[in-house]
């Protein structure tokens, strides 16, 4: 079971809402798609941990649907703070694996003895994320029937990143109950939002943040200063689930 983790594509059609997404981001995403198609074996699943769009117009999501169309495997995605739930569901919904009905864009996929739960952590109009009681109730219900090897996909990291500036823009509601809900067994938590790859052993859990092909930051440990952009090479991780429950993480560099 091979899972590719992408995040923060920040694709746009007219202009970059953040003003930061690289002008050739659609070409870079085409290269990532080509790289995924070149893998042997190919990933069984692609997960995207939010900010698929930079502004979230219907045209943006049509572009995303078009760029991802060559991928034959299921794609699972959660929204980020730069996505728009309605447009994302309307334009991309049929392409997204395990997308649940309701006002949040949660999703669930069970494949190859692995459970993947996509948790919508967005607060509309704010960069920070939140897990309200309704979302945490959903998570608790879904975990009751989850495989021992379970991945949680969410845009906002529930753990601190060691960079105080960014941590203020992370999850601001629900961490305590989230931790209590997931603590029954170790989970693998895949996030985005920070635009810099990062791994953490968090309690009994493994957490990972994927980098962004659109723009990345220098994250200086402990710094309270606003991070500056970095030209560090982009790579995305492949999580290779083994029969004994262990997971190898390979990095794919896309130049
Ligand atoms: Fe982002």
From TrEMBL:
Signal peptide: none
Pfam families cross-referenced by the UniProt entry: Metallophos
InterPro entries assigned to the protein according to its UniProt record, in alphabetical order: Calcineurin-like_PHP, CNP_phosphodiesterase-III, GpdQ_beta-strand, GpdQ_catalytic, Metallo-depent_PP-like
Gene3D superfamilies linked to this entry: GpdQ, beta-strand dimerisation domain, GpdQ, catalytic alpha/beta sandwich domain
GO molecular function: hydrolase activity; metal ion binding
Entry keywords, A to Z: Hydrolase, Iron, Metal-binding
Protein name: 3',5'-cyclic AMP phosphodiesterase CpdA
SUPFAM superfamilies: Metallo-dependent phosphatases
Tagged with keyword Acetylation: no
Assigned protein family: Belongs to the cyclic nucleotide phosphodiesterase class-III family.
Calcineurin-like phosphoesterase domain boundaries: 1-197
Domain of life: Bacteria
């Amino acid at each position: 079971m091979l899972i590719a983790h992408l995040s923060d594509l920040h694709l746009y059609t007219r202009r970059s809402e953040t003003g930061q997404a690289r002008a050739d981001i659609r070409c870079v995403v085409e290269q990532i798609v080509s790289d995924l198609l070149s893998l042997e074996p190919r990933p069984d699943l692609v997960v995207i941990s939010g900010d698929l769009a930079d502004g979230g117009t219907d045209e943006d999501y049509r572009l995303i649907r078009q760029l991802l169309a060559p991928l034959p495997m299921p794609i699972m995605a959660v929204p980020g703070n730069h996505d728009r739930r309605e447009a994302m569901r309307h334009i991309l919904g049929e392409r997204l694996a395990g997308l649940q009905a309701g006002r949040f864009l949660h999703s669930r996929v069970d494949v190859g003895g692995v459970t993947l739960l996509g948790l919508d952590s967005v607060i509309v109009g704010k960069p920070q994320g939140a897990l309200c009681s309704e979302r945490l109730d959903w998570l608790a219900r879904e975990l009751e029937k989850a495989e021992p090897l379970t991945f949680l996909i969410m845009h906002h990291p529930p753990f601190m990143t060691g960079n105080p500036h960014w941590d203020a823009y992370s999850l601001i509601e629900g961490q305590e109950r989230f931790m209590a809900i997931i603590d029954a067994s170790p989970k693998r938590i895949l996030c985005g939002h920070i635009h810099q790859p990062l791994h953490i052993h968090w309690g009994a859990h493994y957490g990972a943040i994927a980098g962004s092909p659109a723009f990345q930051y220098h994250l200086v440990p402990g710094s309270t200063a606003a991070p500056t952009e970095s030209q560090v090479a982009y790579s995305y991780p492949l999580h290779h689930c083994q029969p004994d429950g262990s997971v190898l993480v390979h990095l794919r560099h896309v130049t």
